[in-house]
Write a structure and sequence with these properties.
With 288 residues, this protein is of the alpha/beta class. The protein has helices spanning 2-10, 32-36, 40-52, 75-83, 98-111, 117-127, 129-135, 140-148, 154-160, 167-170, 179-192, 196-204, 218-238, 274-287; strands at residues 16-22, 26-27, 58-63, 68-73, 88-94, 243-250, 253-260. A hairpin with a 4-residue loop joins β3 (58-63) and β4. α3 (40-52) crosses α4 (75-83), α7 (129-135) runs antiparallel to α8 and α9 packs parallel to α11 (179-192). The longest helix is centred in the last third of the chain and has 21 residues, at 218-238. The radius of gyration is 29 Å and the shape is extended. It starts with a helix and ends with a helix.
């Protein structure tokens, strides 16, 4: 493998020329679905290009048969420039066949390594996150997420440095008091390879609640409420509290109840007294 890499390094690569070409003359892409994908990050990339310009040219190769350029690298950059209504784009034109173009694509993607979030946080702290936020197309929340990680102790930051943890895995550590406990949790997350959700469960004991999406329509709202009640009952059952969900029609609508079974009941119903009936009624009212 080493000999092959050495031979490839000494071999002449494809000729590269800097050009400026029309966006409409660019077609395709090594990953077609990626070229067509438009999400929130494309809007942020477009805003960045509008402010700072295209910092990294795309890579294309000429297709003499159709008189256009096949896209090799930079599908998202091309899409963002199209969103901005740009007519021309800076590009690197390589003289390569399909196999050489695929090799170029793989090398760019597999050798690219983004800086760690702690490095990003240091840059933001030195430049001033507020001042950077005023000039950056990224949401301020994304910048502040990184600078908050600098509040972790030095030993904890050393534990997660070098890519041992992602930002999502390390964020729950902010909820732990004490550097020793933070470092212990960081070690467990890294050694066990916990996901971000598992890391939150390790720290907080349960997954962090996600913001509820807006619900449209009465039927959808009812289905959402039933799902939430069922999840709550299942969670209680896993914790050793037998629970079930009951739905009752009422004169003015319907009632969704989470029924908690008394742990002292064994094989038969307890004899109900006015006192126990009042307790059950209060429990049902609280659950609904």
């Amino acid at each position: 493998m080493t000999k092959r890499r050495t031979a490839l390094a000494k071999a002449p690569g494809p000729k590269v020329t800097s050009v400026r070409i029309g966006i409409d003359d660019i077609y395709g892409g090594m990953i077609r679905a990626r070229a067509q994908q438009q999400d929130g990050s494309i809007a942020m990339l477009a805003a960045s290009i509008a402010r700072h310009g295209l910092l990294q040219p795309v890579v294309v190769r000429r297709n003499a048969r159709v008189g256009r350029y096949a896209l090799v690298c930079g599908a998202r950059r091309v899409l963002a420039c199209r969103v901005l209504g740009m007519k021309e784009i800076d590009a690197l034109l390589i003289e390569a066949d399909e196999q050489e173009a695929a090799a170029c694509f793989m090398e760019e993607h597999l050798t690219h390594r983004a800086p760690g979030f702690l490095d990003e946080a240091q840059v933001l702290a030195q430049a001033g996150v507020d001042r950077v936020g005023e000039r950056c197309a990224l949401p301020t929340r994304q910048l502040e997420r990184r600078t908050r990680m600098l509040t972790l102790g030095e030993r904890v930051r050393a534990e997660i440095a070098g890519g041992a943890l992602t930002l999502e895995q390390a964020e729950p550590l902010l909820g732990i008091a004490g550097e020793d406990r933070q470092q212990e949790a960081a070690s467990i997350i890294a050694q066990r390879g916990l996901t971000a959700q598992q890391a939150r469960r390790l720290v907080f004991g349960a997954p962090a609640p996600e913001p509820a999406a807006p619900v449209k329509g009465r039927r959808r709202a009812i289905r959402t409420a039933l799902c939430e009640a069922t999840e709550t009952a299942e969670r209680l059952t896993r914790q050793g509290i037998a629970a079930s969900v009951a739905v009752h029609s009422q004169e003015r609508g319907m009632c969704i109840q989470i029924m908690l079974k008394n742990s002292e009941i064994s094989g038969k119903e307890q004899e109900k007294t006015p006192e126990t009936e009042n307790k059950e009624e209060r429990g049902t009212a609280a659950a609904t």
